[in-house]
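TODO from last week: model C-type lectin domain-containing protein.
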Amino acid sequence: MHDSRTMTYSNWHPDQGPNRHGFFFGDIQDCAMIRSDDHFRWHDGPCNAGPAFHYSFICQYDQNTWEFGDICIQVHYSTKDWDDARAYCRKLGGDLLEVRSSEMQLFVQNHLKATGKKPAGYWIGATDRHHEDRWEWLNGDKTMRFSNWEKGQGPGQSGFFFSDGSLEDCAMMRPDAGYKWHDGPCAGGFAFHYDFLCQFPSPATVVTPTPTTSSTTMPTDTSAPTSPVTSSVKSTTVTSAPVTTKASTALPTTTSTAKPTTTTDAVGVIIGG
Ligand SMILES: [Ca+2]
């Protein structure tokens, strides 16, 4: 479809983008983001340089990524053990998927069905590793209020092969079980490598540390209206009455009101590049 990668439209901040170097970074600012605190102009930033630059991103609507409420869900067809799968999601700025409601469960399983693939399992972000038989999510309120265990799986159960449920501390969704959940060993060899589901916060919910750039250019936009106003008022009082009414009514509306209100939520949004 898209043969050309040439950028025919751009909205770079004057100090950003092509031929510019960041304050801290020279050649490693290779990804573009939309900055809501700068009139949605584009800035460049490092693609992957630690928490300070984990900007939120817009869900890419490929067949493996779906937006559900305020999160993006992404399936990864690359079998790993639970620990490595989680590490992978976190490296991308998210975590393993926490299936918090029946609506989300249905949403995810419908999308997984639609891929036409039916692997053995998909790791999700639930574990009872820290307290046997107390299953919990990984982030925020960890309490598991919704669950979708298959019979004989999860809390209060022992696995078929393992007499001790303490060996099965990580949860997966199983296509062969109607996408119900099984517990399995978090690590321990290739037998327990599965595909996995990551989740990422959507732009609206991410609070990112604000880099100490920009905002210095803002005042230049607002300087124009004030000075011409005084001169025109002077001239109108000298000449004729009809002009004064025109001028006086028009003046207040042109003042720049709430231009530089910076949003505190998502500062940057990674865009495809
Ligand atoms: Ca367990």
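Done. The helical segments are 82-91, 102-114, 219-222, 226-238, 241-253.
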